[in-house]
Amino acid sequence: MRELPATGSERAGMYRMHSPFTTQRVRALTISAHGGLEQLQLRDDVPAPSLQSATDVRVRMKAAALNRLDLWMLGGLKHITITPPWIVGSDGAGVVESVGEEVTSVGVGDHVVLNPGISCRSCEYCLSGDSPLCLRYGILGEHFPGTICDLVVVPESNVVRIPETIPMAEAAAFPLATLTAWRMVVSKARVQAGEDVLIWGIGGGVALAALQICKSLGARVWVTSGSEEKLERAKAFGADELLLHGDVDVGREVRARTGKRGVHVVIDSVGEKTWGQSLGALGKRGRLVTCGGTSGPMVQTDVRRLFWNQWTIMGSTMGNETEFAAATAAFADGRVRAVVDSVHPMSRAADAYSRLQSGGQFGKVVVAVDGDVAIDQRAPG
Asked: CB-hemisphere CA count at 13 Å for 44?
């Protein structure tokens, strides 16, 4: 987690997207203190953001999706201090309501998805095409006001047009998880046709996106879950090998099934609990990519095995504009789906958080900002 300016007012001065508010009031899901679900508050008196920059875009939100980040923000994150009432949510999709005079890529009425990652666009990392390393990088809902709100203002570079035929619930479920998975699989691990890839925790948004991306590249994919039902459902998305990780040592099982060769790539977002088994499953010259530590941040690695097997261990966070455009193209033409587990109205957003907390979801949990939004999933394949 990057240590950014601590308060909302300090962050507001960092980017032009944080423009003066209008006298208009909108609905938003907010928190004013950290804690449990009781802290969630749906308000209808939140000042609406207005365009300030010539490259700003204002989006009327239709749907927003939850990520584990939203649970962490609810409970409280180190180095992050919210300014009440803080608007939650990182993912979202909607319809462009107004644009700045220099905006050319989208227009009023376009259906769009939002890239949750905001960068300064002028530092050495941004100019080299690696915006997630920007020292001022931040994420909607964490460092900036979030997406579970009637209106959101972001830079033009953070919106991408999508076909109107894509259901808004599915569009909202797409951005953060798929972008994260795209960078891990395509840019970092550089997965190739014929390679074996192990993905932990199928059912989560990143894992499901990674599975589909790997299959589109021609890889053979191994998936794990503590749920037999989730493993069976993963078959519809092309999973080749299923591992019930509560019953076996995944590393040992993978080596047994591969004649001790192991897999070429491991996608791990669990961290402490799975690290040893991930390395146990990794073959010589293997690549391990991690984007999180949901079970804990501290891991152990035997450096002798690291150099002897000539492993590559990589960290990955979000993605840049080029990766987001590529992932969106794959999403728009149906190569990658955003799987929706359930849709909840804003008035019952606590139910959405509770569903995510339970760990029982298969796909993304969505909050309908617009009451007309409903589940309408495309079939696998």
From this structure: 2
